[in-house]
């Protein structure tokens, strides 16, 4: 699908974001190995989280979508999972398909490594280029038997087997890898401990506790004992802060914007974005904080007075892991700041759904903007004029949405090729964007 995006004058109004993608994956997976029913409100609507549900359904978990009326008269769809218990999943006759979702493939592999049957997981073209060695190494130390193309790439053939607990220090900061090891740890004999070089999102740790598992946590370190039964739960997923990022940045670029984003997940391991925006001089307030299912949630209010530009900034070192999904849209914001944006230590960006250093650079250059790329980052000068033009998502949801934001501030209209890629995390993105832009 190609999409035409016209420039916009300002952004205003209120939006409720779709459910958080990271949290939804975890609830889907843990619900499948819990005993009893798990009911999930506001499960992420995107294709990635649907892939997780399709995989667990193929492995024997019950998955139903149940429409329910909320107190304010709206009809929403709860996901209801009938869990099969820690070792109750069954072999799938067909290959499991994780679609575009690295989270599904990596985390599910942890769960499947310790079952007593064989599984094969594949994914789309993009996922087949993404490295799996990072989960295969620790899982092999636990005794897992996993084969991959060139020992690194999907499809993965997993011969379920008895696992033993390990004490593992992650060589790269990755919440997906941490989670794969912790999930395998649930099925392993003894204790499994994972330490990380930098704090990454802790949704798995929180979700495990919600499902009744006993885990021990210290800063950058989590221990789980194998063999613990999980109990089905009623859970609610907060709105996705990584989806909110597109609207926050758009509002900070367009003059006189005034926007409320409601019910957004504000887990402190995810809010590096808000700290970074504040460091550029942005006004983003957190309001109405509360907790749902162990996760912090609240509203965000973002405003921009007149035409004042934000300062420039630099993203490097330990900040990178906490901003990794937001960097494409921060690059757009960077072009509109006073002094631009510098990025370093972010070679992980090159192995996301696309090489996001390259796909950001290609589109920015098409818009007439300047960007210098480096192996691990980029330099983007500030105060640039973007020209409306032909853009490409390259099949990457975050590139599609970041450049929809760029198109709002461009001179002249833009066309985004394969704009439909946004469906991976945010099927209603363009409707929501046109609802709040004038
Ligand atoms: C995620 C972790 C991050 C992030 C991805 C979701 C998760 O990936 O980029 O979108 O849900 O754990 P890495 O673990 O590869 O850093």
What can you see in these coordinates?
- The protein is of the alpha/beta class.
- It contains 13 helices and 24 strands.
- It has helices at residues 21-33, 47-58, 102-113, 133-141, 175-187, 203-210, 241-253, 272-279, 319-323, 327-335, 356-366, 397-409, 429-436, and strands at residues 3-5, 12-16, 34-41, 62-69, 75-84, 96-97, 118-122, 145-149, 153-159, 167-169, 191-195, 215-218, 221-225, 230-231, 234-236, 258-265, 283-292, 295-303, 313-315, 341-343, 372-374, 377-380, 390-392, 414-417.
- Residues 22, 103, 174-176, 179, 201, 324-325 line the site of shikimate-3-phosphate.
Reconstruct the topology from this structure:
Elements: E1 3-5, E2 12-16, H1 21-33, E3 34-41, H2 47-58, E4 62-69, E5 75-84, E6 96-97, H3 102-113, E7 118-122, H4 133-141, E8 145-149, E9 153-159, E10 167-169, H5 175-187, E11 191-195, H6 203-210, E12 215-218, E13 221-225, E14 230-231, E15 234-236, H7 241-253, E16 258-265, H8 272-279, E17 283-292, E18 295-303, E19 313-315, H9 319-323, H10 327-335, E20 341-343, H11 356-366, E21 372-374, E22 377-380, E23 390-392, H12 397-409, E24 414-417, H13 429-436
Parallel strand pairs: 2-16, 3-14, 3-15, 6-7, 10-11, 19-20, 23-24
Antiparallel strand pairs: 1-24, 3-5, 4-5, 7-9, 8-9, 11-13, 12-13, 16-18, 17-18, 20-22, 21-22
Helix pairs in contact: 1-2, 1-3, 1-6, 2-3, 3-5, 4-5, 7-10, 7-12, 10-12
Bound molecules: shikimate-3-phosphate.
Shikimate-3-phosphate is lined by residues 22, 103, 174-176, 179, 201, 324-325.
């Amino acid at each position: 699908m190609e999409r035409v995006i016209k420039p916009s004058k300002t952004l205003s109004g209120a939006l409720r974001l779709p459910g958080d993608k990271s949290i939804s994956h975890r609830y889907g997976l843990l619900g499948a190995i819990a005993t009893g029913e798990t009911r999930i409100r506001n499960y992420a609507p995107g294709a990635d989280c649907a892939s997780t549900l399709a995989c667990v359904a193929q492995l024997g978990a019950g998955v139903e979508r149940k429409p329910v009326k909320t107190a304010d008269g709206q009809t929403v769809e709860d996901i209801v999972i009938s869990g099969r218990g820690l070792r109750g999943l069954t072999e799938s006759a067909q290959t499991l398909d994780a679609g575009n979702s690295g989270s599904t493939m990596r985390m599910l592999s942890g769960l499947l490594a310790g079952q007593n049957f064989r599984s094969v997981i594949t994914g789309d073209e993009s996922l087949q280029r993404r490295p799996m060695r990072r989960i295969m190494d620790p899982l092999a130390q636990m005794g897992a038997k996993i084969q991959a193309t060139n020992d690194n790439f999907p499809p993965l053939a997993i011969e379920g087997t008895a696992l033993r607990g390990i004490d593992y220090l992650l060589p790269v900061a990755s919440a997906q890898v941490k989670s794969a090891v912790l999930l395998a740890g649930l099925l392993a004999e003894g204790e499994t401990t994972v330490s990380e070089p930098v704090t990454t999102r802790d949704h798995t740790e929180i979700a495990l506790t919600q499902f009744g598992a006993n885990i021990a946590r210290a800063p950058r370190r989590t221990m789980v004992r194998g063999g613990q039964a999980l109990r089905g739960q009623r859970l609610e997923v907060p709105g996705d802060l990584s989806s909110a990022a597109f609207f926050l940045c758009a509002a900070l670029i367009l003059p006189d914007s005034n926007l409320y984003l409601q019910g957004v997940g504000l887990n402190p391991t995810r809010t590096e974005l808000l700290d970074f925006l504040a460091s550029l001089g942005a006004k983003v307030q957190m309001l109405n904080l509360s907790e749902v299912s162990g996760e912090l949630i609240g509203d965000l209010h973002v405003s921009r007075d007149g035409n004042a530009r934000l300062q420039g900034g630099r993203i490097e070192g330990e900040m990178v892991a906490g901003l990794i999904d937001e960097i494409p849209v921060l690059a757009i914001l960077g072009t509109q700041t006073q002094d631009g944006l510098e990025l370093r230590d972010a070679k992980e960006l090159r192995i996301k759904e696309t090489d996001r250093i390259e796909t950001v650079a290609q589109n920015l250059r098409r818009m007439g903007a300047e960007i210098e790329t480096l192996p691990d980052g980029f330099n983007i000068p500030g105060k640039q004029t973007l020209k409306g033009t032909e853009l490409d998502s390259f099949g990457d949801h975050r590139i599609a949405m970041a450049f929809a934001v760029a198109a709002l501030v461009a001179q002249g209209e833009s066309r985004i090729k394969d704009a439909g890629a946004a469906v991976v995390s945010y099927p209603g993105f363009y409707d929501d964007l046109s609802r709040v832009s004038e």
